[in-house]
Amino acid sequence: MSRRIYETAKDRANEAAVAARLSKAWGCKLVKCAELYMVDWVIEKKGKVTHLIEIRCRKNSSTKYPTLICSMQKIIKGINASEITGLPFVFVPMFTDKLMWIKPTRDMEHNITMAGSDRRNDPADMEPCYNFKISDLTEVIEK
Question: 52 near 81, Cβ under 8 Å?
Fold first, then answer.
C-alpha cells in the first residue's frame, strides 16, 4: 500500500514561486521533476541538467528554531544521486523571512532524529530526519 501524499496545490504553487526566485537570483532555469521523483527540481542550462534541487517551504522564520528538519530518505536520495551523476545536490528551504540553501554531502555532520508531524494522526509522518543547523545554511542573495 502506498503512502498518502499530503502535498496540496498551494504547496506546489509555493514551491514554484521559490523556484522562480532561485531562477532569477542564480540566473538559471529550474525544471520541476515528476511527483515522487528523488528530487523536486533540477537546474537546466543549455539543455543539460547541472544541479539537483530539493525545495522546502516553511511557515516559520529562520530564527524560530536552531535547526531545520528534512526527511533522511529525501536527503540520502539527493546525496546518492549527486555522487553517481557528479551533479551538485542543493537543499533550499524557504522561511517566512529568508530563502536559504545548503549542499548536503556524505561527509557533513549527521544529526539524525525521529521527527515529523503528529497533526494528522498518521504514524508514517514520523520518520528519521536530518537536522540542519540554521547557522550552516547560506542565504540566497536575490537580485
Answer: yes
pLDDT one-digit tens code per residue, 52-97 = 999 999 999 999 999 999 999 999 999 999 999 999 999 999 999 9
**pTM for this model (two decimals):** 0.89
Please state the domain extents for the chain. Answer: 9-139
- Three-class DSSP labels, the chain: CCCCCCCCHHHHHHHHHHHHHHHHHHCCEEEECCCCCCCCEEEEECCEEEEEEEEEECCCCCCCCCEEEEEHHHHHHHHHHHHHHCCCEEEEEECCCCEEEECCCCCCCCCEEEEECCCCCCHHHEEEEEEEEHHHCEECCCC
Q: Is domain 9-139 annotated with CATH 3.40.830.10?
A: no
